[in-house]
Design goal:
The chain has two helices and 16 strands. It is mostly beta strands. The strands form four sheets. Strands 11, 12, 13, 14, 15 and 16 form a six-stranded mixed β-sheet that branches.
Length: 277
């Protein structure tokens, strides 16, 4: 049975939509009909994590999950996703009782990237903190948006979108993609040790000068890095064109000149059949 471990949420910018952003496990034999895998062991039925469904209109910020990414390497699934406006104590309560969490979850952060692993896609380890939106991992309270991780056979490489809201970026683009590295998939380079991805061309600005990457997904195939980029008006939290970019070094990317999908685009994925074997 082929498996996909993803997240399903209500589309739209309405505040209520975010309560449906829960890491969810589904599987399929044909890529069309999907269901929860038999025997899945998760604390919230088919969801690995879930926040309370009730919302208070007078609360400006509340906790939710988003931006799930997953990979399979060395016989293990690794599921990464982002906790937003969730207190460090709450993440500790949900997570593994580990030195890693004790170290990384000492202070509250607006956003925290976490990881769970599994050898069968059914039983998952408790979450571990990967990095947060606090220093030194990110400029204070940046979005660490849409992280996507690949394994090259030698190291783990993480790509994410950071909004251009501080004096830490090379130009005036609304957003930039940051590349981090790790030896174990859990401890990634800090922000100032990371690299800003360079695009040799930016075809999205021909459509709209305000367009920039909003959500991304990374793949590593036959020695090449690929980025599936949903570009749009980042400052309006939208994306309307989907592009494919490729790179040999993971830092300098060439983007195909024409988008292969347009209008109401969100985070999408590119993969080969080999990736899913």
């Amino acid at each position: 049975m082929d498996g996909l471990y993803s997240f399903f949420g209500a589309l739209g910018n309405a505040r209520e939509s975010e309560r449906y952003e829960n890491p969810t496990i589904v599987v399929s034999n044909d890529g069309i009909n999907w269901s929860s895998p038999n025997g899945v062991k998760a604390p919230y039925r088919e969801h690995l994590q879930r926040m309370k469904s009730s919302l208070k209109k007078d609360v400006p910020k509340y906790g939710f999950w988003s931006d799930v990414d997953w990979m399979f390497e060395n016989g293990k699934f690794s599921l990464y996703y982002r906790g937003c406006f969730i207190k460090a104590s709450a993440l500790k309560n949900r997570g593994a009782k580990s030195q890693n969490n004790s170290k990384k979850l000492t202070n509250n952060a607006q956003r925290t990237i976490v990881r769970q692993t599994s050898t069968d896609g059914i039983s998952w380890t408790p979450l571990e903190a990967v990095y947060t939106s606090n220093s030194p991992y990110s400029p204070k309270n940046n979005h660490i948006l849409s992280p996507s991780i690949v394994y090259t056979g030698k190291e783990y490489v993480s790509f994410e979108v950071e909004n251009n809201i501080s004096a830490n970026f090379p130009g005036n683009d609304p957003s930039y993609i940051i590349r981090r590295t790790s030896n174990n998939g859990l401890d990634f380079s800090n922000f100032h040790q990371s690299k800003v991805v360079n695009f040799i061309n930016k075809p999205w600005i021909k459509i709209n000068s305000e367009y920039a990457p909003w959500h991304i997904q990374a793949t590593y195939i036959d020695g090449y890095y690929f980025l599936c980029i949903a570009a749009g008006e980042v400052r309006k939290f939208t994306s309307d064109s989907l592009y494919l970019a490729f790179s040999k070094d993971g830092l300098n990317f060439k983007v195909l000149s024409k988008p292969f999908a347009e209008q109401n685009i969100y985070r999408s994925e590119y993969f080969s059949n080999e990736d899913r074997q």
